[in-house]
């Protein structure tokens, strides 16, 4: 099968990582895996798995550009004998749908987020993600959301949870030298004897960095021994938000306790540095990829109690779930985590790894996605 995936960029993120994983599976099955995108830092990884980049301005929401992209995609479908166009974001999905209608290619979508819309126009725009012949939901939470927001698509939803690369996110394959190198790059002494909390997420308000700093400020005021908290992720141009976080660090006197470190290309090594991971998003995560990766690395997770995190984090077994947007509740979970013995945290991490390995593997995602492609190709639509 020849598959064309469309996605705005190939930067760090769950949708981008899944694009590469599916490309790898297509090539391994003897097909061709094309990706229409503006590109980004994951281009080399796409090429390494045998994928082919088609560089187009897929991130643009300009109606004229979206229309031009549809024309370009239609030409690619005809020239490369594409069987299925798989859309992973809204603006590219409009281009992909028009191209599929013109060429007879099958059209599949993956619903990667909640895409909430308060106006009728926004809901209409979002609905393109539910108009695939088959609509992949990356969690039970997203499947329920699609059925509520787009009842017409209910019988076309196929649930394929996000996967974790269990070969890559395996503490047994992370050499101590690799962890030490990352720590040195970040200017950290390792091992330091101090508890480390890793917050892996791009710097944007809905991920919960503000609430985390407020929670740490509460604990600091109580006289607690704080974990060294590492904020790892791109600001992606949000200079104002970055400045706000730096101000909050100063206001709460957290300069010795919090580091803002930017993008990391070796997340397995980053998790190997950590004793606990933080995923306290204010808005619900569609799945909760970083929480799953942390679990695979035997790291207990403190996550917000909504969205896909409810499927990834089992309270009291693999981590903690706290009320979203509540710094007091988050402080309570951090307090409990730091009061545990290392043996207790290790046992919780072991349970986390068992849960992730049985429920959320990349291989399972790849196999299930290929089955969806086969189902689409066998249909008469």
UniProtKB/TrEMBL annotation:
<feature type="domain" description="Glycosyl transferase family 1">
    <location>
        <begin position="189"/>
        <end position="349"/>
    </location>
</feature>
<keyword id="KW-0328">Glycosyltransferase</keyword>
<comment type="similarity">
    <text>Belongs to the glycosyltransferase group 1 family. Glycosyltransferase 4 subfamily.</text>
</comment>
<dbReference type="Pfam" id="PF13439">
    <property type="entry name" value="Glyco_transf_4"/>
</dbReference>
<dbReference type="Pfam" id="PF00534">
    <property type="entry name" value="Glycos_transf_1"/>
</dbReference>
<feature type="domain" description="Glycosyltransferase subfamily 4-like N-terminal">
    <location>
        <begin position="13"/>
        <end position="168"/>
    </location>
</feature>
<keyword id="KW-0808">Transferase</keyword>
<dbReference type="InterPro" id="IPR001296">
    <property type="entry name" value="Glyco_trans_1"/>
</dbReference>
<dbReference type="InterPro" id="IPR028098">
    <property type="entry name" value="Glyco_trans_4-like_N"/>
</dbReference>
<protein>
    <submittedName>
        <fullName>Glycosyltransferase involved in cell wall bisynthesis</fullName>
    </submittedName>
</protein>
<dbReference type="GO" id="GO:0016757">
    <property type="term" value="F:glycosyltransferase activity"/>
</dbReference>
């Amino acid at each position: 099968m020849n598959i064309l995936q469309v996605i705005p960029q190939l930067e760090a993120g769950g949708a981008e990582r899944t694009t590469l994983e599916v490309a790898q599976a297509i090539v391994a099955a003897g097909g061709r895996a094309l990706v229409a995108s503006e590109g980004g830092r994951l281009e080399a990884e796409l090429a390494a798995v045998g994928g082919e980049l088609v560089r187009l301005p897929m991130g643009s929401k300009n109606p004229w550009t979206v229309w031009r992209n549809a024309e370009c995609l239609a030409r690619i479908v005809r020239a490369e004998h594409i069987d299925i166009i798989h859309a992973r974001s809204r603006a590219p999905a409009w281009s992909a749908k028009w191209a599929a209608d013109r060429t007879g290619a099958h059209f599949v979508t993956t619903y990667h987020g909640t895409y909430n819309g308060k106006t009728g126009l926004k809901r209409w725009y979002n609905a393109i993600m539910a108009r695939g012949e088959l609509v992949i939901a990356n969690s039970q939470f997203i499947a329920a959301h699609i059925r509520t927001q787009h009842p017409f698509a209910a019988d076309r939803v196929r649930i394929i949870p996000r996967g974790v690369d269990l070969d890559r996110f395996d503490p047994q394959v992370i050499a101590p030298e690799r962890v030490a190198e990352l720590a040195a790059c970040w200017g950290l002494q390792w091992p330091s004897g101090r508890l480390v909390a890793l917050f892996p997420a791009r710097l944007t308000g809905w991920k919960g960095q503000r609430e985390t700093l407020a929670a740490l400020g509460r604990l600091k005021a109580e006289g607690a021994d704080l974990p060294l908290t590492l904020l790892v992720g791109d600001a992606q141009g949000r200079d104002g938000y970055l400045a706000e976080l730096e101000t909050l660090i100063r206001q709460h006197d957290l300069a010795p306790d919090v580091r803002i470190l930017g993008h990391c290309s070796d997340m397995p090594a980053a998790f190997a540095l950590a004793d606990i991971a933080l995923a306290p998003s204010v808005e619900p995560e569609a799945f909760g990829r970083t929480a799953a990766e942390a679990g695979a690395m035997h790291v207990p997770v403190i996550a917000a109690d909504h969205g896909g995190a409810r499927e990834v984090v089992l309270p009291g077994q693999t981590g903690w779930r706290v009320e979203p947007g509540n710094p007091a509740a988050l402080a309570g979970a951090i307090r409990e985590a730091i009061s545990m013995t290392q043996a207790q945290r290790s046992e919780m991490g072991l349970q986390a790894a068992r849960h992730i390995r049985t429920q959320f593997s990349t291989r399972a995602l790849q196999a299930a996605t290929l089955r969806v492609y086969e189902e689409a190709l066998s249909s008469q639509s």
